[in-house]
């Protein structure tokens, strides 16, 4: 008898596999554009002023280190819900619990959906976030993939609508709320309206993954699409990450929300979520949620946070514009591909590169991304935009 059977199947997470390759690269000019963490122009993942202010306040007025319970910090949950869904009528249909960041919220909600309907199918648009399939599969959900993009790399909502039309009532479609990872694409208001009507008409439940709000077009514009859909559909589940907008990656704070017009459904869903979290990790940690609660609950800290969040967004958009301008000047890509790159939003940029070209970018230019073409734009200092453009021009010209 051994700990692991002889027929075990072990596969490393690609994200950490390629991160390890980057760490082994001794070239001083290397660029690590793999892991999705915001970095400033000095290459540092900054602690926001508002976060430091909140932590100072917590240090001066310490709170108990007692357990927070399986549903976590409910004031944090309420403030997070009010931030992402200001419509009081929609919030009246919402209940939520604190989760271990967005990933934990995704897992809790996936298990809720699987326990309630074991044969439920989740529609997953591809290319997808690298961890979506493992989370959904681990919870026991069936997955049906469909394409998201047209030939030029633009988001095509008609593909979503066609997939929804083939689904059964009670099935689920996973929707990234903004700044899509890994494609950087987004829907415009008219497309959000069409998507919401299709979900309502076919009885398919939206499963929102809301992680990068504020880093695309601004907080309210980034959240507007999900807010509109939640006004159209009766039921939904929503995962919210506090990692990106507050730079709290290691604190692991987030929220898992359900939306239903039925109070009995809301109560039962809360009990199920608490039971799932109790069995998984008992209850979430307190500190990250306390920071966000303090920031959102104080007008001064909240206003300063919004200023910092806007500056992060502005830097990302400026980097994208600068890179596209250099690629255009070098005639590295056709006009439709350049337009698709310019239209992307958020931390990630989906390059029109093959896995072989991404390997060449790594080997010849010390620029490390993922084989599918995703790079973390926030990892590129403004002084290195020219290097990235030159490397891309080189590998694209080589074919």
Beta-strand residue percentage: 5-15%
pLDDT averaged over residues: 95
What is the succession of H and E elements?
Answer: HEHHHEHEHEHEHEHEHEHHHHEHEEH
The value of Rg in angstroms is: 21 Å
Please specify the SSE layout and strand pairing:
Elements: H1 14-23, E1 31-32, H2 49-60, H3 74-84, H4 88-91, E2 94-100, H5 101-116, E3 121-126, H6 132-138, E4 142-147, H7 157-166, E5 172-176, H8 189-202, E6 205-210, H9 219-232, E7 236-241, H10 243-246, E8 253-259, H11 263-281, H12 287-297, H13 299-329, H14 335-343, E9 348-350, H15 355-365, E10 367-368, E11 374-376, H16 385-398
Parallel strand pairs: 1-10, 3-4, 3-5, 5-6, 6-7
Antiparallel strand pairs: 2-8, 7-8, 9-11
Considering the chains and any ligands shown, give keywords for the structure.
399 residues, 11 strands, 13% strand, globular
What is this structure, in a nutshell?
This protein is of the alpha/beta class and 399 residues long.
Provide an overview of this structure.
There is one protein chain. With 399 residues, the chain is an alpha/beta fold. It has 16 helices and 11 strands. The chain has a 7-stranded mixed sheet, sandwiched between helices. The protein starts with 13 loop residues before the first helix and ends with a helix.
